[in-house]
């Protein structure tokens, strides 16, 4: 009890040195919006309506994923990275990712299918690959 009483009697620390806002990283041009893109719901829709909404959802997610991957690549290059390790989720990897996963590539020239997360993918939904920068 005494510890709690002591705790609540303490004054909050003076954080005046932290009052200035931290400069944020600017979003890339054509950034497809902020926040989470929610998966369409099946309830109350016909199969055709749901399929159409799901296809639109996949296009939006793919566009956002490509923008994030391009942004991450630009930030990695800005930080001094010249190479990256191709990574992907093993449960959803396509043939392209299985072939490239764990190998080191250069930021100077993209692979035949593009950078991880930006190129075309053999996955039925969207690319789950990402580049892990090597500094």
Topology diagram in text:
Blueprint: H1 2-9, H2 47-79, E1 83-87, H3 95-100, E2 104-106, E3 130-134
Antiparallel strand pairs: 1-2, 1-3
Write a short abstract of this structure.
This protein has 135 residues and is an alpha+beta fold. It has helices spanning 2-9, 47-79, 95-100; strands at 83-87, 104-106, 130-134.
Key traits:
135 residues; alpha+beta; three-stranded antiparallel beta sheet; 3 helices; 35% helix
Architecture overview:
By secondary structure, the chain is α+β, with helices and mostly antiparallel strands. The protein has a domain at 45-135. It contains 3 helices and 3 strands, in the order H-H-E-H-E-E. The chain has helices spanning 2-9, 47-79, 95-100; strands spanning 83-87, 104-106, 130-134. It has a 3-stranded antiparallel beta sheet, covered by helices on one side.
Order of helices and strands: HHEHEE
- C-alpha end-to-end distance: 51 Å
Helix count equals: 3
The counted number of beta strands is: 3
Q: Report the principal-axis shape.
A: flat
Task: Characterize the biggest β-sheet.
Answer: 3 strands, antiparallel
Structural class: alpha+beta
Please give the radius of gyration in angstroms: 22 Å
Summed over residues and divided by their number, the pLDDT gives a mean of 76
- What amount of the residues lies in strands? 5-15%
Give start-end ranges of low-pLDDT stretches: none
Q: Provide the helix percentage.
A: 25-40%
Largest beta sheet: what is the strand line-up?
A: 2-1-3
